[in-house]
């Protein structure tokens, strides 16, 4: 990778490391989610939360959750301990978390008080994270929370592109679009707290406008970092993969023509993805097999919020404990924790995934595996067409960048012809092969 591209890739890694612990894994940081409410004031078309409705966490339950974290750490519990959770990311989620901003405020005060009282490392080794739709951003209680937790709290307002694309997928309960309020919240957050990145979710419902959506986000908010990924759920087809490729190519052309590629990082064009995976890599893509923890409104513990009743659809929720007993204490909870700990990339993946020449960067959700197949150890592969498309688009983007910069470096095109041509066509594939040719004159 050329120096300027690597610089922005590494700068993002460094920023992440400073906020959440060492990026190279020498200091481990665990994500702990508090599902503070099952209610939401939007009805987004691609939302994985199937069972929105009444129900909220109370302060007594929240305090018990906090107490359990400190107790497990003190006892060097296999799930929470100083090695695995040197730091914590306290993630408050719903539904819409800002519906319960008073509870979140009091929970964080209790957490800090306990950490100081115990002389615990978490008094300094923690961050607060929330993602919001922005509808309640102007609430004085929300603004007070941000001021009280400045430097420790990161609030992300979801803006899914331009107004047309956003409002198509993200509507209020009475069917109104939510873009105007979300965009205003994003801009205010940016001005007050220097927010400089965003995330755009690509789904079958918005893939046909994702180029304009991504371009709008970066132009409107002058962003330097844009995270975008395709949803893992069922619905992707080869035809939609074709749409994705040409949309990403259009977005890449804009980055090149405006020379924004010099100062921007777009995660879907990650230079480390789209390559073979070594057999020695056994790591699960997802943290939902023991690297995360979620407390539901009633204090029941799950490996990730997507295993909880709010999200899991018609499956039995995949609990691993509760605030009264602890984690992996009851026999069935212990069995599930042990099973999750045994899952590897190899154990859950079909043979074609293990042999895939572009396996690096192809992700999955362990909880969705469970929701769809009945086991977190059986990998769902609906995003396969989109991973091929984004890898081809990455080759187009990066190799054009390298050539513009006069670099001899190339992003190797590992996508086989028989996979590529149904998505991009013969002529386009030949162009990508030529663009990736090493040793050619630039």
Mean of residue pLDDT? Answer: 90
How many individual β-strands? 13
What about the largest sheet? 8 strands, mixed
| Portion of residues within helices | 40-55%
H and E order:
HEEHEHEHEHEHEHEHEEEEEHHHHHHH
Using the CA coordinates, give the radius of gyration: 22 Å
Please render the helix and strand layout as text.
Blueprint: H1 3-20, E1 29-35, E2 42-44, H2 59-74, E3 87-93, H3 101-118, E4 126-132, H4 140-148, E5 153-157, H5 163-169, E6 170-172, H6 179-193, E7 197-202, H7 210-221, E8 225-230, H8 238-257, E9 265-266, E10 292-295, E11 300-302, E12 321-322, E13 326-327, H9 331-342, H10 345-348, H11 351-354, H12 366-373, H13 384-404, H14 417-424, H15 426-435
Parallel strand pairs: 1-3, 1-10, 3-4, 4-5, 7-8, 8-9
Antiparallel strand pairs: 2-6, 10-11, 11-12, 12-13
Helix pairs in contact: 2-3, 7-8, 8-13, 13-14, 14-15
Output the keywords.
442 residues, alpha/beta, 8-stranded mixed β-sheet, 3-stranded parallel β-sheet, 41% helix
Provide structural commentary.
- The protein has 442 residues and is an alpha/beta fold.
- Helix content is 41%, strand content 13%.
- The chain has helices spanning 3-20, 59-74, 101-118, 140-148, 163-169, 179-193, 210-221, 238-257, 331-342, 345-348, 351-354, 366-373, 384-404, 417-424, 426-435, and strands at residues 29-35, 42-44, 87-93, 126-132, 153-157, 170-172, 197-202, 225-230, 265-266, 292-295, 300-302, 321-322, 326-327.
- The strands form three sheets. The protein has an eight-stranded mixed sheet with strand order 5-4-3-1-10-11-12-13.
- α8 (238-257) links the parallel β8 (225-230) and β9 (265-266).
- The two termini are 15 Å apart.
């Amino acid at each position: 990778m050329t120096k300027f591209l690597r610089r922005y890739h590494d700068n993002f890694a460094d920023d992440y490391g400073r906020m959440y612990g060492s990026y190279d894994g020498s200091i481990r940081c665990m994500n702990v989610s508090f599902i503070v409410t099952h209610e939401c004031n939007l009805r987004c078309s691609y939302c994985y939360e199937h069972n929105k409705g009444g129900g909220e966490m109370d302060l007594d339950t929240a305090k018990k959750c906090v107490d359990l974290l400190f107790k497990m750490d003190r006892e060097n519990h296999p799930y929470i301990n100083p090695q695995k959770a040197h730091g914590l990311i306290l993630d408050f989620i719903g539904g819409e978390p800002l519906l319960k901003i008073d509870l979140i405020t009091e929970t964080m005060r209790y957490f800090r008080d306990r950490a100081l009282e115990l002389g615990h490392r978490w008094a300094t080794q923690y961050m607060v994270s929330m993602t919001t739709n922005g509808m309640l951003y102007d609430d004085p209680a929300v603004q007070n929370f941000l001021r009280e937790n400045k430097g420790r709290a990161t609030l992300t307002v979801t803006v899914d592109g331009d107004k047309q694309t956003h409002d198509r997928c993200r509507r209020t309960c009475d069917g109104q679009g939510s873009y105007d309020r979300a965009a205003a919240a994003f801009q205010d957050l940016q001005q007050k707290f220097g927010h400089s990145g965003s995330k755009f979710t690509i789904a079958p419902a918005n893939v046909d406008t994702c180029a304009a959506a991504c371009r709008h986000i970066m132009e409107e908010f002058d962003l330097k970092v844009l995270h975008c990924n395709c949803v893992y759920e069922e619905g992707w087809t080869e035809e939609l993969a074709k749409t994705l490729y040409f949309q990403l190519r259009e977005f890449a052309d804009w980055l090149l023509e405006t020379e924004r590629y010099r100062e921007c990082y777009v995660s879907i064009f990650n230079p480390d993805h789209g390559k073979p995976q070594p057999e020695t890599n056994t790591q699960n893509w997802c943290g939902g097999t023991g690297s995360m923890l979620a407390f539901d409104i009633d204090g029941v513990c799950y490996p990730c919020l997507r295993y909880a009743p709010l999200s899991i659809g018609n499956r039995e929720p995949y609990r691993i404990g509760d605030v009264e007993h602890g984690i992996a204490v009851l026999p069935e909870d212990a069995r599930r924790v042990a099973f999750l700990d045994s899952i590897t990339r190899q154990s859950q993946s079909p043979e074609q995934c293990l042999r895939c020449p572009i396996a690096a960067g192809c992700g999955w959700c362990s909880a969705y595996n469970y929701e769809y197949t009945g086991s977190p150890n059986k990998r769902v592969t609906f995003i396969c067409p989109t991973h091929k498309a984004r890898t081809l688009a990455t080759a187009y983007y990066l190799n054009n960048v390298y050539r513009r910069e006069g670099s001899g470096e190339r992003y190797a095109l590992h996508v086989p012809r028989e996979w590529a041509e149904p998505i991009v066509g013969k002529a386009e594939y030949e162009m990508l092969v030529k663009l990736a040719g090493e040793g050619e004159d630039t």
